[in-house]
Amino acid sequence: MTEITAVRGFKDILPTESFIWRLVEDKARDLANRFGYQEMRAPILERTELFARGIGETTDIVEKEMYTLADRSGDKITLRPEATAGLARAVLENNLVENGRPLKLYCLGPMFRYERPQKGRQRQFHQLDVEVFADPGPYIDAEIIVLLRDFLLELGLTDTEVKLNSLGCPKCRPAFREKLIAFLEAKKDSLCPDCQRRLTRNPLRVLDCKVDSCLKATLDAPSLADGLCPECQDHLSGVTGALKSLNVSYFLEPRLVRGLDYYTRTAFEVHSPRLGAQSAVAGGGRYDGLLKELGGPDLPGVGFAVGLERLILILSQTGDLTAPKPDYYLAVLTPEGLGPAFTLAHRLRSGGLTVATDWEAGSLKSRLKRADRLGANRVIMLGPDELANGEVTVRDMVTKEQTKKSITGEDFF
Ligand code: HAM
Fold first, then answer.
1. In the chain, where does the domain assigned CATH 3.40.50.800 lie?
2. Does 277 have pLDDT greater than 80?
3. Residues 25 and 312 sit within 8 Å (Cβ to Cβ)
4. Three-class HEC string of 117-150
5. Ligand 1 centroid, distance to 188 Cα (angstroms)
6. Residue with the nearest Cα to atom 4 of ligand 1?
7. Which ranges in the chain are annotated with CATH 3.30.930.10?
8. R_g (Cα) of the chain, nearest Å
9. Which residues line ligand 1 (CB under 6 A)?
10. Hey, what CATH topology would domain 15-172+228-318 get?
């Protein structure tokens, strides 16, 4: 029979990698906690309509990347392609915004998009997602960018770049959109088939297309930066001012357009030179119309998500990260030693020590080899002499120094 393999684009996180995941997740929780954000765990399955309405019918995600299925009662459900829409739904459904007071949340977990798998791009991937609801001011946009910057810095990533833009608001964007459509109509023949389709449906996305002919055709396209209304300009200066006050470097990138339709005003991405084609390690922005679009009150929102696979890809290239090692390897040399060793291992583990062992007796040479492979700092040896004396021999694997301890484990602490 042929062996069953994992679904394309879905990856196992192996024991040799999972410690990096824990490190990243622990750092995320620690930092979110320091900034006063609370963890939210939302379902992975949502009604398809949530994403169609939230992310936008004409986005690549909704048009071609969602894992959508009908459940046994015929309801259309979708594996979440991102977290924002689900968190917004949960906030509304559970009335989490009290009297309009800001609500700061984060969530960690898997997302699903049917994209072509390649380095840094999978069909199941993970995000740290941070969202703030009901705070309209520029300081909160800056705060989440600082949180993201600190998260990356504290993990040792010093060479990432923040790209920042304002996408305007329902007051100023329609006029810009019309201007852009007029510009693009004249260049239609030079645009790729995707952009020709986007031209009237989602013209801003054309500015973000990486196809050469589209890049060339849009070199002198009208700039969003010139079309912002005074309120959007003020908001953007508020954000950049706050970032400058903490020396957070950023690049204003007037062509930065995100792949989700809910954004208003602030939009940003963090890129790493170490990632190649899929260089965005994080992206986010403000989405002041989303809660209303989902049937809730007119409350603003802002947030970002970090792609954890991409982050871990960079970390494993740069950092000298090592998996935690067991304090002890328990080497049982004769079958009679197994029983006393079983009791000893539990005593030590209950006292908080990490003890690795195999429940088989073997030669000292084979046991030491095993201890070495597991990277144990010390080996507890239990042979016939030790057993007769009610002792064990503890060998430090670095200094090779040996000491005797009681087989009861009492003098290990
Ligand atoms: P996004 O830009 O679609 O934004 O995704 C954020 C990050 O997730 C990307 O920068 C990338 O690192 C990672 N990512 C996306 N797709 C994949 C994939 N197929 N494989 C591996 N990593 C991937 C959002 O998802 C928004 N919800 C962010 C947000 C939160 N905006 C406001 N609040």
1. 328-412
2. no
3. no
4. CECCECCEEEEEEEEEECCCCHHHHHHHHHHHHH
5. 29
6. 283
7. 15-172+228-318
8. 28
9. 82-84, 113, 115, 120-122, 125, 127, 129, 131, 259-260, 280-285, 303-305, 307, 309-310
10. BirA Bifunctional Protein; domain 2 (3.30.930)
Q: Which amino acid is at 339?
A: G
Q: Whose CA is nearest to atom 20 of ligand 1?
A: 121
Residues in the chain: 413
- Give the tens place of pLDDT for each residue, 76-89: 999 999 999 999 99
Tokens representing 337 are 């030693």
- What dihedral do alpha carbons 217, 218, 219, 220 form, nearest 10°? 110
Confidence of residue 322 (pLDDT cuts 50, 70, 90): confident
Burial of 189 (0-12, 13-18, 19+ CB in 10 A): exposed
In order of 137, 230, 236, 393, the CA distances from 225 in angstroms are 19, 11, 10, 72
pLDDT reported for residue 393: 97
Distance CA 106, CA 267 (A): 18
- The structure tokens 């398809």 sit at 48
State both tokens at 146.
Answer: 């600082």
Distance CA 86, CA 93 (A): 10
**Whether domain 328-412 has CATH 3.40.1080.10:** no
Residues 214 and 204: their CA atoms lie apart, in Å, by: 12
Identity of residue 211 = V
